[in-house]
Amino acid sequence: xxxxxxxxxxxxxxxxxxxxxxxxILYRIMDAPDGPPSEDEITSMLIGLKEIHNSxxxxxxxxxxxxxxxxxxxxxxxxxDYRGVPLKEIEEATQGNLWPTEEIExx
Length: 107
Hints:
With 107 residues, the chain is mainly alpha-helical. 61% of the residues lie in helices and 0% in strands. α1 (5-30) runs antiparallel to α2. The longest helix is centred in the middle third of the chain and has 31 residues, at 39-69. It is rod-shaped, with a radius of gyration of 23 Å.
């Protein structure tokens, strides 16, 4: 499947919804009219939320990784590598010009 920046944004927002899930759990523990849940119920809620959050992060990484592989982050004006470094600088670095000599400090 090919993803775009809107898919990435959607997955980022889903990861942030974990905070809302935690607020819901806190409501159940502190403010629910039926009283607080049992220790087992709290543990089950937290284990479930942990797994959901992990799944959200896995999906987010999958979208990001797919976009990197499909070169979705490459600038049309100045091509960049996966770190955002202009390809021209990489070409210069491979020719022995890693850093300008005036930037190197001796210790």
